[in-house]
Amino acid sequence: MAEAEAVCDRVAIMVSGKLRCIGSIEHLKSKFGKNYLLEMKVKTTEQRESLHREILRVFPQAAQQERYSSVMVYKLPVENVRPLAQAFCMLEKVKQIFDLEEYSLSQSTLEQVFLELSKEQELDDFDEELDPSVRRKLLPQEDP
Q: Domain ABCA1-4-like C-terminal R2 regulatory spans what residues (predicted)?
């Protein structure tokens, strides 16, 4: 995927033999990327718990992905981050309060877009395999 991002102008993604999307890399990321990735590096590990609480306060739907000795990684839903200027303003305040060494906020990668589309396809395939009576129990349908 990294090679595709480096050399391709347009990308097509096929899942289970079906063309799911085609377009420029930026178009696919903005259309199908559902999350931003926030990475923060703390200077002292004693601040991690209070920093975690602050991130959840600033971005209520943040989901912690990884936690190393000095690095914390969160997945942030796109709608939680917009407008970007406001998100960066809040992150700068957090950086000063907690004396962060550095932070980065990045868009979904092409690989994450592909994995998201593949996961959706798996769910669609699973739903099609179900007996209609079971499907009705899993996904209640409203009568018009």
A: 33-107
Fold of 34-122: Alpha-Beta Plaits (3.30.70)
Of 127, 126, 61, 47, residue with least CA distance to 94? 47
Rounded Cα distance, 78 and 57, in Å: 16
* Omega cis (within 30) before 83: yes
For the chain, give every domain's residue range: 34-122
Instruction: Give tens-digit pLDDT for 68-127.
Output: 888 999 999 988 888 889 999 999 999 999 989 999 999 888 888 888 888 877 666 655
Helix (H, G, I), strand (E, B) or coil at 9: coil
Q: What's the rounded Cα separation, in Å, for the pair 80 and 65?
A: 16
